[in-house]
Amino acid sequence: APAPPPSRHLFSDPAEVKALRGNLLAWYDRCKRDLPWRALAATEPDPDRRGYAVWVSEIMLQQTQVATVIDYYNRWMQKWPTLQALAQASLEEVNELWAGLGYYSRGKRLQEAARKVVSELAGRMPRTAEDLQKLLPGVGRYTAGAIASISYGQAAGVVDGNVIRVLCRLRCIGADSSSPAVIDRLWDMANVLVDRSRPGDFNQALMELGATVCVPKVPLCGECPVKQHCQAWRRKLFGNPPKVPDVEDCGKRVGDCPLCPPATEPWDSSLGVTNFPRKAAKKPPRVMRTATCVLQRRGCHGALEYLIVQRPSSGLLAGLWEFPSLPLAQDLEEEREREELADHLQAWMGRPVAAKGLRFIGEVIHIFSHIHQTYVVYSLPLDGNVTLDPALAPSRWVTEDEFHASAVSTAMKKV
Q1: pTM check: above 0.85
Q2: Could you list the active site residues?
Q3: Domains of the chain by range and CATH?
Q4: Helix, strand, coil tally for the chain in percent (to 5)
């Protein structure tokens, strides 16, 4: 078994834990943001509807800022106020409402899980973090802990990006914060800290602190309600601790501690508390280039219409609609790009497409989390109708308004 973590990184003093809880909750009661999912969780008497309201917010908030989520959340809850309503919706409707929010598989998994609750769990939400994670697709450890604590009062801790930052600064954890070993220790800390009488409020307070005060680049340490418990703040004020740690504090030999900063990355006094957390260097995003053709025609009422096709049901942007597109090899000359796109369109349309007829419009760059995507945009006006082979992909003609109301990605809206 691995050795227990060094004591100075833990919250082992009950009096300190009690004081930290009290200070953080008092600050939260004074300063918390007024957010729609918090209002629903606080006022909804039905436990299943309360759990559903929190669940939707937590899924939307994954990898997405609060300011962006609010409008999407309000529209979602207005359209599907219950699990039962969401379970009856189509995936196309879900994708249309989710369009622009990113990470589209989240909406799909949310709907799949709602259908499972209705069909297999008699419409009753699981009540514990363990059951939520085990029974609901797309619900991981963090989301399960958030739903269980906020909706059902279970004293379960949570660890998300904000909590990682707060805990690493509170306890000067300088090891790679994305490593499984460090994440496990942070979960241990979160479960020790969570207030037993107000677990949901405490978890939200901890996340709120990371989102509004203990922010990544310019933390507002002067406004922090728990700064007296923060080792990084004290270190900033009083300088470096001794280079050789106490034998009982961080292991028998320098470098033994799995949570201390590595010896090769010393404290940088110019960074202050932002020395923490430390992360492994990110892999550079994959570079991709895609040719996209906006096919257009005059509809029966004279309005311009555009052809869109549906993406496969799995993978990036699964099930969304786009203009006909073709991945390109890197460093192709423009003439060759046109030829490949013309061949691609010809195979779909069943009629010749001249490469010279494709009009180059420009390039659109869109950054996904792991992909640096460049869309090379062409247009092609057509006379009359074009029907693509349905065996290749579903397709339809849409007006500009219909396009924006469809389940299309932000990247395609840029195109």
Answers
A1: no
A2: 58
A3: 7-229 (1.10.340.30), 286-405 (3.90.79.10)
A4: 45, 15, 40
